[in-house]
Design a protein that fits this description.
Layout (H helix, E strand, L loop, with lengths): L3 E5 L3 H14 L4 E6 L2 H11 L3 E5 L7 H9 L7 E6 L7 H6 L2 E4 L4 H16 L8 H16 L11 E6 L2 E6 L3 E7 L2 E6 L3 E4 L3 H7 L5 E5 L2 E4 L3 E6 L5 E5 L2 E7 L11
Parallel strand pairs: 1-2, 1-3, 3-4, 4-5
Antiparallel strand pairs: 6-7, 8-9, 8-12, 9-10, 11-12, 13-14, 14-15
């Protein structure tokens, strides 16, 4: 029987990345729905009765822990729970002691493959001891107690993008991007070797990029500071960015000119 899963994360790009990595390491898994918050995750699980649910820890409406607690109480549902978390390696002891699966953000293919193998083995056999609603609730309480002492997880900036060109899906390392430019309904991604178009708005990308590396220099442009060769001023006093190994010139709007103020 083909196994079915629901993904839950309030960040769309994180959902897309997890979905892509799951398709790579577990192509037989059927991802039947994606939820944008914990409450929606509970509703989708109740409706679709999946075998597995991947839950981000920090989500609006209900956290991943709260959603998992409600899912464990659903009548007639035996569902494996995997937490997707931005907490670092020191914090994941909480999950290991709780005996529930977890994946660190951003999803790593090797770690995700081990989780997939564990889930397939478990779902292919009998339920393990302590998988009752009471047992899960006890483990969730233990995990929640540990996480409460740690505070919020560190901010993890976007590392990968996926772009489709025809029937080809590409995974693009963010570090390789020279600049992003808003282009009507799309955002253009420019690397040294290729150009791609994605539907993610520039504003949404800006919130997930490392601001120390990626500078917004115009309302329609974000440039990789590491790719800047020099900044020039034209006869009208407007700033222009010249990039390393790329002929395109990026305009700097007046409201962002302070980024290049001489000291």
């Amino acid at each position: 029987m083909k196994l079915r899963a629901v993904l839950a994360d309030d960040e769309r790009l994180m959902r897309e990345q997890l979905k892509l990595r799951l398709q790579q390491v577990w192509p037989a898994l059927d991802i039947v729905a994606e939820a944008r918050d914990g409450r929606e995750a509970v509703e989708l699980v109740a409706q679709l009765q999946p075998d597995i649910v991947f839950l981000d820890i920090r989500m609006p409406a209900l956290s991943g822990i709260e959603a998992a607690r409600e899912i464990s109480r659903l009548d007639g549902l035996a569902c494996e729970i995997v937490f997707v978390t931005a907490y670092d390696q020191y914090a994941v002891e909480a999950f290991e002691h709780g005996a529930l699966d977890y994946v660190l953000k951003p999803a790593d293919s090797e770690r995700l493959a081990r989780t997939a193998a564990r889930l397939q083995s478990r779902l292919g056999g009998s339920a393990t001891e302590g998988d009752s609603g009471t047992g899960i609730a006890s483990r969730l309480a233990q995990i929640e107690q540990v996480l409460a002492t740690l505070g919020p997880p560190p901010t993890r900036h976007l590392r990968w993008l996926q772009a489709t060109q025809g029937n080809v899906l590409r995974l693009i390392a963010v570090d390789e991007v020279l600049f992003f430019r808003s282009d009507e309904k799309y955002t253009r991604i420019q690397t040294a070797l290729a150009e791609w178009l994605i539907r993610t708005p520039l504003r949404e990308l800006a919130e997930q990029l490392d601001p120390e590396q990626f500078w917004q220099v115009h309302r329609s442009s974000i440039v990789n500071a590491r790719a800047v060769e020099r900044v020039e001023r034209d006869d009208a006093g407007r700033l222009r960015i010249r990039l390393k190994g790329h002929p395109e010139v990026i305009e700097v709007s007046r409201s962002f000119s302070h980024l290049f103020r001489q000291t």
